[in-house]
Amino acid sequence: MREKKYKNAYPILKINAAGIMAGNTLKARTIAILGSREVGKSSLIIQFVENHFVESYHPSVETTFRKVIRYKGHEVEAEIIDTAGQVEHSILSFTHVVGIHGYILVYSVTSKQSFEMVKIIRNKILNYSGRESVPIVLVGNKMDLHQQRQLTFEEGKNLASHWQCAWTEATAKRNDNISMFI
Ligand SMILES: Nc1nc2c(ncn2[C@@H]2O[C@H](COP(=O)(O)OP(=O)(O)OP(=O)(O)O)[C@@H](O)[C@H]2O)c(=O)[nH]1
Ligand SMILES: [Mg+2]
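The joint structure predicted for all components is written out below.
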């Protein structure tokens, strides 16, 4: 059931790794994770890199995490830029566009505002980069919070299909579906 539902997702590092298959040397890929404050960006990355969940909220100062992954026999060094959450007046700078190979855009299924924010962020990325498309995965985090849900599964799915990008819902707390997008 779940596999069928989430088939739309495709991990961003694998999308990128496909482009660097030549040679056996270690290659680095830089991914930025963006979204409103408190949607769970750091929590998702900490689960991915360190395998644990932090219950308390500590607003991020921008940090880079590193993890080496294997993809089709090649080692890929993933550099993940965990940004301080975007608020209306501080959305993105050029440092979030130059040298970035892909983006994870996170909203929380408990916050319509955060869903609007990923749309604004994507527009900014496209404007800054001057490209018509960039590798993006869209992630609806906090899917464990059923009672507080403000966004349906379909809303996320429809936005991703409109953008023609990969998408999944996930939960950093339960460590579910994180491998679907990174
Ligand atoms: N229930 C639940 N809580 C979560 C989940 N992911 C994160 N949280 C909580 O949400 C709060 C914010 O998480 P962070 O990971 O710090 O959010 P962030 O997007 O990095 O926030 P900024 O760094 O300020 O942009 C924390 O209290 C987390 O414990 C989740 O999947 N489910
Ligand atoms: Mg954070």
